[in-house]
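Can you make up a polypeptide sequence alongside its tokenized fold?
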Amino acid sequence: MSPTADIQIRPATPGDKEFLVSLLPRLVEFGPPPWRDVAQMMTIDREVLCKNLSAPSPGIAIFIAEDVGGAALGFIHLVTLTDYYTREEHGHISDVVVAPDGEGRGIARALMTKGEEWARSKGYRWLTLSVFARN
């Protein structure tokens, strides 16, 4: 059995808010660069994630990875951006986070695959992800 055989990916619901917010500290565990304010990052990440969860739009998606028992193990937050030069819309991974209990189980890979499927379903030619060097 593959490591992700017992994992399912589903759309997030407002009932997932506590789980999503509980994982936000993982976004800064790696130690962001000194020019980033960690408190500001946490505040903005929470605001945007909660807004997109409570009032989703067609260009935004949040998916939850969970095991067959329903335990949430990670999430991916996807948004639509517009390329600066071409003005072409594309998908962007705003956040992808795996809970400690999900590490080493292929959760990130499953979430990334779901992100790629979402981007293709929107007709986007590419999906971007930005990370800091130490992440």
User: Anything to note?
Assistant: Residues 20 and 33 are 23 Å apart (CA to CA). Strands lie at 7-11, 60-67, 72-82, 89-98, 127-129. Residues 7-129 form a domain with the Aminopeptidase fold (CATH 3.40.630.30).
